[in-house]
Amino acid sequence: MSTLLQIQGVSKAFGGVQAVNRVSLEVNRGDLISVIGPNGAGKTSLLNMISGFYHPDHGRLTLDGADITHAAPSRIAAHGVARTFQNIALFRGMTVLDNLMLGRHVHMKTGVLGAFAYWGLAQREEVAHRKRVEDIIDFLRIQDLRRRPTGSLAYGLQKRVELGRALALDPKVLLLDEPMGGCNHEEKEDMARFILDVNEEWGTTIILIEHDMGVVMDISDRVAVLDMGSKIADGTPDEVRANPQVIKAYLGETKGAPAERSRG
Amino acid sequence: MADTMTLPGYLVRNARQHAERPAIREKDRGIWQTYTWRQYHDHVRDIALGLAALGFTRGDKLSVIGDNRPRLYWSQVAAICLGGVSVPVYQDSIAKELAFVLDHAEVSVVVAEDQEQVDKILALKEQLPALKLVVYEEPRGMSQYRASDLRSLDEVEELGRRFAAEHPEYFAREIERGRMDEVALFAYTSGTTGSPKGAMLTHANMVETGQILARSEDVRLDDDWLAYLPMAWVGDSLYTLVMNLMVGFTVNCPESPETVQRDLRELGPTAVLAPPRIWENMLTSIQVRASDAPRLKRWAFERSRAAAERAEILRSEGKAVPLGLRLRLALGEFFVYGPVRDQLGLRRARWAYTGGAPLGPDTFRFFRSFGVNLKQVYGSTELTGLVSLQPDAEANPTTAGRPCPGIDVKIGERGEVLVKSAGVFKGYFKNDAATGEVIDRDGWFHTGDAGFLDPQGHLVIIDRAKDVGALADGTAFAPQFIENKLKFSPYIREAVAFGHERPFVTAMIAIDPNTVGSWAERRGVAYTSYSDLSQKPEIRGLIREEIHRGNETLPEAQKIRRFLLLTKDLDADDAEMTRTRKVRRRHVAEKYAPVIEAFYSGRDSVELTTAITYEDGRQGSLRSVVHIEDVEGVAVHG
Known about the structure:
The complex is a heterodimer of chains A (264) and B (638).
Chain A: E1 3-14, E2 17-28, E3 32-36, H1 43-50, E4 58-63, E5 66-67, H2 73-78, E6 81-84, H3 96-103, H4 112-116, H5 121-140, H6 155-167, E7 173-177, H7 185-202, E8 205-209, H8 213-219, E9 222-227, E10 230-235, H9 237-242, H10 244-251
Parallel strand pairs in A: 3-8, 3-9, 6-7, 7-8
Antiparallel strand pairs in A: 1-2, 1-4, 4-5, 9-10
Helix pairs in contact in A: 3-6, 5-6
Chain B: H1 7-17, E1 22-28, E2 31-36, H2 37-53, E3 61-65, H3 70-81, E4 85-86, H4 95-104, E5 107-112, H5 115-124, E6 133-136, E7 150-152, H6 153-166, H7 170-177, E8 183-188, E9 198-202, H8 203-216, E10 224-226, H9 234-247, E11 250-253, H10 260-267, E12 271-274, H11 276-292, H12 295-316, H13 323-344, E13 351-354, H14 361-369, E14 374-378, E15 388-389, E16 402-403, E17 408-411, E18 416-420, E19 427-428, H15 432-438, E20 445-453, E21 459-464, E22 469-470, E23 476-477, H16 479-487, E24 492-498, E25 505-511, H17 513-522, H18 530-534, H19 537-552, E26 560-565, H20 585-591, H21 593-600, E27 605-613, E28 619-630
Parallel strand pairs in B: 1-11, 3-4, 3-5, 5-6, 6-7, 10-11, 12-13, 13-14, 25-26
Antiparallel strand pairs in B: 1-2, 8-9, 9-19, 14-15, 15-16, 17-18, 18-20, 20-21, 22-23, 24-25, 26-28, 27-28
Helix pairs in contact in B: 1-2, 2-3, 2-6, 8-9, 12-13, 12-14
C-alpha cells in the first residue's frame, strides 16, 4: 500500500503550551487509523494541522506527494481532505439536502454569472451533484430528513448529516473528530457501521479521533496514541492495548489494560 | 378469469397482456423507478432459474426478510414459480422468533434486504440446519463477506440467465407443473399465545380469495397501491402479491419505513389498507397540528369538523342533510376536508380499509366525515386474510362488514365465529394437532373470535372468545371493548384492561410519548424520559380526565375504577404484543401480576420491575415505583 498522507515531526505550541510535539505518522491509502489519548493530548490540534486550520511550527505534511504544510484550508479541501467537527458545524437553518449540496461546492465549476443563467451547464452540473448527494443520503439512510432543517434534528442525526456533508466532498482523506461523542448506544453502533462502510466500500482513508475504546479497538486498522502532545505508541489495536506506556498514560502506574470508557 | 390459473400463470399472462404497463415501482434516490410487467416477469424468471441452478427445487422453502422491496416480492414469486413455498418473515423480529420460524419452516434459502438482515441470519446459522443459501439484495457493506453460501441477488440473476441458456424450457415447464392445491405460502400467525404457527396457503386459497375480493370491491387495472405493511402479514401477501398478479395494477414501494407518510402523500394511492393504529396516528397528528395552528385556522377546522360530524350522523341514520349544512360542507370541502385528505395522501383513494383489530368509532366517523371512504374488513391468516367487508353504503364503525359472497359464516358455541370458504387454509405446517383444533370435521374454521350476526347481516366481533370473561358479580367483561374506548384518546397509545373474576375494572395505560410530550411542553412540564413523563402528576391528571371521558360511554359495571401509567410502552420485543400489535393478554397478566394484585388490594403505588429486550436480544431492566390512581366520580367498592 502506498503512503497517502505523511506527517513528519510536526509541532505546534500555543504560548507556553506544547500542544503537539514532533509527531510523525504515516497514513496509507485505505487505512482506518484512530488517534487516541487522554484529554488535552493534542489529538484535535493534530487534526487541525492536517486540515490546515493551524500551521505547524516545525515539521512537514505531505498529501499524495504535495507539500501541504502551509496550505490554506480551502486548498487542502480541494486536495481531497474533508473533516467533521467535535461540535457539529452545520448550517442549522438550512435543510439537510442544502447542507450536503454545499459540501460539494469544491466540485462546482459554474461561476456566479453562469449560475444566474441557470439552464444549460449549471443545471446539468446541479443534477450531477444532486445525484451524488442522493447516493450519500441513501448510504446514510436519511431519506426521510432531506427537507428538514438540520437544527431541528436529534443530536445523533446531526452527527450523521455532518458525516454526510464531509462525504459530499468525495474526500481522499476523511478526518473525523469524535463522531460518536454524545451519542447513545444505538447511534454509536450506526455510526461505527457507517464509518466502516465508507472505509470498505468507497476505499476512503479515515483518521478518527474517538474516546470510546470499544469502538476504536473494534474498527481501526491501526491506532496511534498521543499523550501530552507526543506520540507514545502506534500499531494494531492489539499491540497498542498491550503497550506498557499506553497503560501508564491511561491508568498511571497501575498494571492492567487501558480503561475502557463506559459505552453507554 | 380461468379458475385453474396458478399465481405464476397470472404472471405469464401479465407479461403478455400488460407487458409495458407499470407493475411495480420503487422509490430510490428520491425518484420513483418503474418496472413493467415484462421486467417483473423477466426478473422473476432470472431469480427463479438462478435459484434452480443453486439447487432450489419443488417443495423447498424460501424466506424473505426486509422492508417492502420489488426484488423481495420477485424472490417470493420466483420460489412459487419453481413449486416452492414463500415464507415471508417480520423484518423487526428478534433473533429468537426469527430462529424459530426459519427452523420450523425448514427454510433453505433466505433472501435478505441488506447487511443488517444478513448479519441476523448468519448469527443464527448454527440453529438452522436446513439453511443452504443466503442471498442479499443490497450489496453495501457486504464486500468483506466471503462464503460460498452467501450470494448477491445480482449474482443469482446472472446465474439464472446462464441457466436459461442451457435449459430454455425449464421455467415454463416448472410453471406448468404447478397445481392449484399446492402450498405456495406459509403465513406465520402472530400468535397471541404460544409459538407462531405456520398457516399453509395454497394457490387455490389465494387465487379464489383474490377473486372473491375482486368481485366485492372495485379493484382496477390502473390502480396505485402503496406496499408499506409488513410482507409477513397475510394482508400484504393477499394484496401486494396475489391481487397485483391477478388484476395487474401498480404496486409502489416506499423509499424507507420512515418516509411512508411522505411517499403516501406524493403517490396518493387509489386504495388504502391500514391497521387501526395507523388511522389513530393520522388522527392524532391532525389533532395536534390543528391545536398548534393559528386561531383563524383552528376556528375554521373546528367549525368544519363539527359540521362534518353532524352530517355524518344524519347520513348514518338515513336522514336528509339540510341545505344550510350542505352549504357549510361545500365550504369545508374546499377549505378543510380536501386539504386534510391531500395532506394525508388520501385524495385519490376510492376506498380505504381498516382491519386487524377494531377501530374506535370516533376515529372511524372522523375519517368518513372528512370524505374518506373508510370501511372495515375482517379476516384472519388462516382464511387468507378475508372474511367480510363493508359495502360503501353500509360502512359503520361497529360491524366487521358483510361476509363476502362465497364465504359462509355461522356462530358456533360460546358465540364463536365459524367460517367456511375457499380461503380456509390447508393446515398448520407440522402441527396437525393445532389444525385439528381449529378446523372441524365439516370444514368450518374456528376463528377464536366471539361475535354475532346483526339483523342487517353484518358480522360483529366482540373480542377474542377466550378473553371474554365475567366480573365477580357475573356481568360479562370484554377487555378489548373497554380498551378501544380508551385508545381513542390521542394521549393513550395502548391500554390493557383487567376485570375477569374481579369486583371492578382496572387498566394499565401506556401513554403516547409524542402527544403527551407536546402537551407537557406546552404547559412547561419538564421531563427527561418516557418513564419520567409517565409519572408526572400533571400527566396522571390528564389521563384521569381522558379515562373519565371514556367511562361516560361505558355501562356502569364496565367503567374503569383504577389505573396506572406504565413506565414504558408495550412492545413486541418484550413479547407483550404481537408483531401486528395485539396485546398478548395472558403474558401481560403474568408479567404484571404484582400490578394486578395492587389494583385490587387498594394500594396506591406498586414497585414495577420491567425487563426490556433490545432488538439485538440483549436484556435490560427498568425499576420504578408507579402510582395507582383512582378515577374520580366512580366509587370503588369491593
